[in-house]
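Re: magnesium ion structure - here you go.
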Amino acid sequence: MSEKKDILYVVIPCYKEEEVLPETSRRLKEKMEKLISENLISEKSRVMFVNDGSKDRTWDIICDLHKENSLFSGVNLSRNRGHQNALLAGLLTAVNFADMIISMDADLQDDINAMDNMIKAYYEGNEVVYGVRSSRKKDTFFKRFTAEGFYKLMKALGVDIIFNHADYRLMSKRAVESLSEFKEVNLFLRGIIPQIGYKWTTVEYERAERFAGESKYPLKKMLSFAFDGITSFSIKPIRMVFWIGLIVFIVSIVMLVWALVAKIMNFSNAGWSSLMGSIWLIGGIQLLGLGIVGEYIGKIYSETKSRPRYIIETILNKED
Ligand code: UDP
Ligand code: MG
């Protein structure tokens, strides 16, 4: 193990988590003290709770924790902005003080003992370490089915995401600074972070059940999160319109020929051929037109995100 001790910040978004915070902070305090005594992290390391505009006692608890022990720090958002935004707020605040940042949920569903392996991987030169669930035994069938289906759909749509990785991950200072170059407002961190690049690896862990309180991700939020993920990273749905248009257009030509043949052979009703032909033709042209407009919208959409076109990892240059 390397001699240097880097500063670790653990960033935790919290929305109405008054029920879990006392236990979460107790377990994390133990963990951090152990990591510090094992000389794995600096004693300047912190646990940073981000209060995502909770109306309950979440922020009061965070303030008390901070008063009691400087290990705990807090960030208070002006209102509820959602998990991803709260997480980003924490990452971009912590990056000013930390060498490495681990993000995790307040309910400790992510096994905090995986932190050891993440930190080890960081010292081995990895800039992003993704926590990956080894199994979903504890999930309900419904959650497992929808979540795994979602990862597969994303892959099929050409989005680069890590299978069964949620937002439990370690990032180096440099990786978080690169993340800040992504200016998009519709945040889907699991899709953005693989785009940063750098050396990365995964660490497996067993995901537990939420130990208190209830999920802050009801089905409605889950669906809108999934939809956001797809529409923020893929213009394949727009392209599909174009291809459907093209197919309908080709079918319309076949139909036209068929209608004409039927007319000549004299086995069609009056008006049938022209009606059939024009319905297919107009439908095809409309879809094709829509697809072309969609292509341009897709371009505008990626331009407006103004994502960085590249991130340089190293420069070798000797001046003089
Ligand atoms: N969270 C948040 N803002 C929200 C919803 C959730 O900061 O609007 C936080 C929440 O406090 C927790 C994490 O996001 O730390 C994940 O939420 P939860 O555990 O409820 O999701 P699940 O594990 O059920 O998917
Ligand atoms: Mg949870």
